[in-house]
Structure formats: C-alpha cells, structure tokens
Automatic annotation (TrEMBL):
PANTHER family: ANAEROBIC MAGNESIUM-PROTOPORPHYRIN IX MONOMETHYL ESTER CYCLASE-RELATED (PTHR43409), BLL1977 PROTEIN (PTHR43409:SF7). GO terms for cellular component: cytosol. The keyword Cell membrane does not apply. It comes from Aerophobetes bacterium. The keyword Amino-acid biosynthesis does not apply. Its cofactor is [4Fe-4S] cluster. Keywords: Iron, Iron-sulfur, Metal-binding, Methyltransferase, S-adenosyl-L-methionine, Transferase. Residues 159-376 form the Radical SAM core domain. InterPro entries: BchE-like, Cobalamin-bd, Elp3/MiaA/NifB-like_rSAM, Methyltransferase_Class_B, rSAM, rSAM_horseshoe, rSAM_sf. The lineage of its organism: Bacteria, Candidatus Aerophobota. It comes from the Bacteria. CDD domains: Radical_SAM, radical_SAM_B12_BD. This is B12-binding domain-containing radical SAM protein.
Amino acid sequence: MKLKLIYPSSRKANPELQWWKQPKAHRYPGLGLLTVAALCPPTVEIKLVDDDHEEINYEEDTDLVGLSLLTINSQRAYEIARNFRDRRVPVVLGGMHVVACSEEALKHADSIVVGEAEDTWPELLRDFNSGKLKRIYKSSCSSDLSNMPLPRRDLVDKRRYITINTIQATRGCPFDCEFCSMAALFGQKTRLRPVEEVIEEIKSLEGNIFVLNDDNLAQKSEYYKNLFYKLIPLKKRWAANASWNIAEDEETLVLLEKSGCRGVFVGFESLEPQYGVKKIISSKDRALIYKEAVKKLHAHRINVIGAFIFGFDNEDESIFERTLEFAFDSQIDAAQINILTPYPGTPLYRRLDEEGRITERNWNKYIASNLCFKLKTMSERTFLEKYHWMKSKFHTFPRIALRLLRASRISAPYELWVLLGINLGIRKSIKDYSREFESSS
C-alpha cells in the first residue's frame, strides 16, 4: 500500500499570503502526520509532502492520501483533495479544522478523522484495506499517552527546518480562553505522558536541540519539575510554550535553566485585565506583573518571545502605544503581534456570529494579520493603521540590534542566530504585507 501524507500550504491558492514566506528560524514540522505515519504497519510505503516547499505529484502511484488541516490552509487542502479524487484516489482529511467544521470537510473527502489519530487511524487503515472505509472516524480524545509510537522523523527533509526534533509530553490546556481552539474543541483536561517515555524519546533524537510542543508549560508543575530534573543529565537545549506564571515559582525556574531551556513563547495576549487568561490574572497592573516575569526568566538565561493579540472589545487606540511601551520596557527578545481571529468552533466565533459581527466567511482570510469581524471601538482603517504602526516600530533595525545586544549576555551564538532569524523574518513579513496593505487601500 502506498500512502501520501500532505501538509497543505498556507500560501498557495491564498491571495492573502502570497507575500509571506515563513523564515527557517520559525519552522519545525508538526507532529500530527508524523504520528499518523508511525501508526502505520511496516508494509505501508509512506511519502511525506510539505506543500509549502515542494510541488505535489498528482500522477504518482498512490493508494490513499491524508491531509492535516488548519483553518488557514483548509481551502488549499480542499483543492489538493479535489485533484486526487478526480484521479480516483481516496482522500482522508483530519486536523483542527476538521474537528471544528466536520460537515464542511466531509464534502471534500472520502473520509474524515475527527480528533486524534491514535484511536482512529489503525481502524481506518484496516477498513480501507478491506474495502469498507467509513465516512467518519471519531476519536474519544481520551487515549492514553503511554506507549505512544515515535514520530516518523525519518520522513522529514531536515534541511527545511530549524529543527525536526519536536516533542510532546502533555496534551491539553486547563484554561478556557474565548479565542483558543484547543479547549473549545478538545476540552480543558490535561493528559500526561509518562516522564520516562518522554526522556527516552529525547535521548533518541539526533543533535542536542528540541522543541517541547506542549500546549502550556505552566501547568501540572510537579510533573514538569520531574521532567526538567531528568533532562539535566542529557545536556540538551530546548524551547517551549508557556504562560507568564511559570516565572512565579523559583524552583521551576532553576530547573528550567539547568535542564537547558533557552526560550519560551509566552502568550501575554492583552494588557487589558478582562481579556486573555482571566483565571490567572485579572489585575489592572498586568504590565508590571508581566515585566517581573520577563525579568525572572532572563535572570535564568531564558529568552522570551512575547505574543500579543489586538481586537478585544473595549480596547481603544491607546492599547497599541501602551503595548509597545511594555514590549520595549520589559525587554522581551522577540514578539508575535497578531489580530484577534475568531476561529470556527471557538466561543469567540459563536459570540461574534450571534452578535452579527462576523464580516468574513472565507477561511483564507482567517490569518493573524487580517480583521474578520466588526470592532466595537475603532474603525477598521484606524485599527489596521495602528496595528501596522506598532509592528513596524517594534521591528526597526536599531531595536532589533538592541534586543540582540541584550540577549548576548545570556545567549549562546546559536540562540542569537535563532533570535536574529525570528526578528528579521517578522520584519520582512511586515514590509511585504505593508506593500499589500497600502496597495489595497
């Protein structure tokens, strides 16, 4: 049996993203399709295709095609699926967008997987081989995370990515952010993989760098402390997603540093107290609390990439100036600056839809630099001008140089190279998008 697994491109067939090319410093392969490949028996001949970086050969002999969808690449995925189905090759769709929009996805596939692969893909393969492929395979999303198969990293072209070593120790996030797909689609339960199994997988990796691709590092603290402690002898360097409050516990910070953590992606989201992770912090002094968290992380040689979201209700124009001031004063090392996106399946999408404020139904438009709904306090034009102003101000060459100079006090050359790539990559995307924005105005 010949199986083709495809990551659909977010750029191809998407006019909103023709200007954009993700820098290598941002790139590492997702675990979804690599896990699907690992669940296949040895008799299955697998080819992995990254549509962003190579052309799809529709004429190549293939028995079954699988695609993993996000909202942003769903239309491209449907186009790919149509091309294969026109050639009488069965197509299976899965991924976050399929969970959120199952009925839509079903129109473009022979079968869909709703949820996780571990308790669905083996059954799907058995049914396919016996000629009894079902239309829908639905996961319970409660599968035990012990004895997970190792992702098929051997299928990946490592030259395209900053690293192919992505690891998952837990699944799920306990928070219920209105805009986040994870809790909305999979619930707020967190499942833990046995620490020893995580360590053994990390030992098996080539090189000494990996990304811990968990949803949120600032939870299940005793579990993570145990993991960090057992990472210390391995002398690896790694990065992860985390909430700001991971910095509240000094023991955790010490273990993070000793275990080789050199960077965290922190979702600050908004300086307004009513938005973001309200269960963690509701203080009006968010900026001060966040600054202290960054200071503590830096004290333990951990770089901080801050993520901000604009477009929450009741934010006025001053939010951009205040956030820029915070970003400078806190001395974060890089920033992801996004527009609030009401992804399908989230409470945010449902609320805005009920309020009649969704202005865009084309999933190609659901990108973090596009506004898809009507704001309460600003015109779209004013909002977008302020948004691009802030991104540009944060990513001037002098500011990037200053950030790298500060980071050099705590970072090795390789880490500085990654930070430089992130900052310059975002700067280039801003310039390219600004030309598109100006030409459309």
